[in-house]
Amino acid sequence: MVELKNVxxxxxxxxxxxxxxxxxxxxxxxFLSGESGAGKSTILKTIAFQKLPDLGTxxxxxxxxxSFNKLDLPFIRRKVGVIFYDFKLLEEKNVFENVAxxxxxxxxxxxxxxxxxxxxxxxxxxxxxxxxxxxxxxxxEKQKVAIARAVVSEPYILLADEPTGNLDFESExxxxxxLKKINLRGTAILMxxxxxxxxxxxxxxxxxxxxxxxxxx
Amino acid sequence: xxxxxxxxxxxxxxKKAIYSTLxxxxxxxxxxxxxxxxxxxxxxxxxxxxxxxxxxxxQAFVENTFENEKIEDLEKQINKVEGIAEVKFLPKEEALKxxxxxxxxxxxxxxxxxxxxxxxxxxxxxxFSDEESVSEIKSELLKIQGIESxxxxxxxxxxxxxxxxxxxxxSLYLGILIAVFAILLITNTIRxxxxxxxxxxxxxxxxxxxxxxxxxxxxxxxxFQGFLGACLTSFMIWLSGNYLSETxxxxxxxxxxxxxxxxxxxxxxxIFGSFVATQKFLKYLD
Lengths: 217, 286
Description:
The complex is a heterodimer. By secondary structure, chain A is an alpha/beta fold.
């Protein structure tokens, strides 16, 4: 379970997030919507323990910000997959290497790395590009690699920060299809977006709207 | 931990920062070569000094009135003096013969008598070749009845000792200077390598990599650079040894211990240099 209890992070006066309460369970798919600067990325960073709350508590599985120890950070991040609008891939490495990195940092045995990576590539439809350098892929394909890398180690939750921000309509549809497929396997997904159309097209999923750092009921 | 992956990351890092890596390896090579030559010289100079010391001898001259029948007893008494390794007796007749041959003349005929004395040449044990011990041996010899005088080359002993002392001091300072220089260069190269891979590190952090996992490739990179520099140095010393042996027809065999020391020191320098470089970077990983 991921839980934010009365979380406040203040950057400057009236900037940040204030008294945020949020509970995400296994298998949830939530949108986090709002204008730029509303506080979407801050909430994602808080769940990834990239930012600790000034007030309140964040809990990811067995880890809480109240008893936070720096040494736990790698292990917290293994529970939280993250994807970004700018993909954050190792461009000079091939698709396989990028996805396998998600397992290698988790210290998965070498034999399993190959098997799990190829399986993941097959799931996101990139098997035929396995040994292609990422710099030669299209934006949609790059995002698929980023998703595969983030979920290959089976995290509890996938945080997606504007994952379709750089993509055309067709690629956006494809990415949404993959995210839903991953969600069906039990991985919770929290997707920050400012695209109203995307939320309307997926009305069956909960949308948490945020404005000026506060969740709007 | 996937060691093969970490090693390939280390090589990848060297490939990415190929120019600074090459400069670093070349500098390690140059530094270790200086250090290696110092070790070889130290090893060989010790051999040389030992050889010189083994040649330090005292000439003890027998009184002209001393009875020939008692020479054997006299030799026994000399042998009892502490620090003497070997005693050789040279009768004055024999000494004259040698001198006559050297000078191509008959000295006895010229002076009307044999001007030389019976003498003992005393070879000293190497641990008794310092100036103080030699003086003590001399005074012990002069106490023996029948020994008129004893002579040795003071200046040679002093010079050897002075040379050895100075050499040790210079070698020590030079060695420290070389090591510091090498560490600074490796540290700088690894730092460049870290900066070149900042994006990779950021991504690894996000994926949940531990500090050890992130930093180990850099430590390995330093170790490889040190090892490669040491291999080049060893090869160059081996090559030079062969060249000297063939050109000057002398035995110039560099001992295995020296090659081992160069390799160990190269590795140590590399690991220490990269360790220093990564320490400053640790804060960034939190």
